[in-house]
Design brief:
By secondary structure, the chain is α+β, with helices and mostly antiparallel strands. Helices cover 30% and strands 17% of the residues. It has one domain (2-167): NADH Oxidase (3-Layer(aba) Sandwich), CATH 3.40.109.10. The chain has five helices and four strands, in the order ααβαβαβαβ. The chain is globular.
């Protein structure tokens, strides 16, 4: 990637992946990025579960009633969790880590998609975080925020166009200020 601005334009959610597996180097690079994510007071309340087992990926693809089925076709899913007892801003810290993983994936030419787990439900009505916790034996004290599906891009997406920027949502000095 040439620069950060270009990275932001080309990073688009990818829900289709090729069958190509990720290399160990790619997986390590994604984890390094996650572990370098900033956290409040450097609490590092997050923890990550790397899932490349096809059977587990299939199970994870049912973590929500809709918009999670593509996890089954991804070569890797990174489950982002955090301990609310370690940090009162665990949601923010885990969210930052989630997007850092996505930006690292894009920088390596890989595609990714954030699957929101917190405050979502499965098709049967079970809370999504409870479902993921059961599938992966996640300890009760950890909360599941998201699943980031990562893989080689299975489709082309146009870069974000700056002509679609919503400048009306930017305010100067006070709300409504220009």
């Amino acid at each position: 990637m040439e620069n950060f601005s270009e990275l932001l334009k080309v990073r688009r959610s990818m829900r289709k992946f090729t069958d190509e597996e990720l290399t160990q180097e790619q997986v390590v690079a994604l984890m390094k990025a996650a572990l370098m994510s900033p956290t409040s007071k450097r609490t590092n309340a997050w923890q990550f579960i790397m899932v490349d087992n096809k059977e587990l990926l299939e199970k994870l693809s049912h973590c929500k009633a809709q918009s999670s089925q593509f996890i089954a076709d991804a070569p890797l899913a990174i489950v982002v969790t955090a301990d609310p007892l370690a940090s009162d801003v665990w949601i923010e810290d885990a969210s930052i880590a989630s997007i850092i993983i996505q930006l690292q994936a894009e920088d390596m030419g890989l595609g990714s998609c954030w699957v929101q787990v917190r405050e979502r439900s499965t098709a049967t009505g079970m809370p999504s975080d409870e479902y993921v916790r059961e599938v992966l034996d996640i300890p009760l004290q950890l909360q599941v925020l998201s699943v980031i599906a990562v893989g080689h891009k299975g489709m082309e997406r146009k870069p974000f166009s700056e002509e679609h920027l919503q400048w009306e949502k930017v305010h100067i000095n006070k709300f409504g200020g220009k």
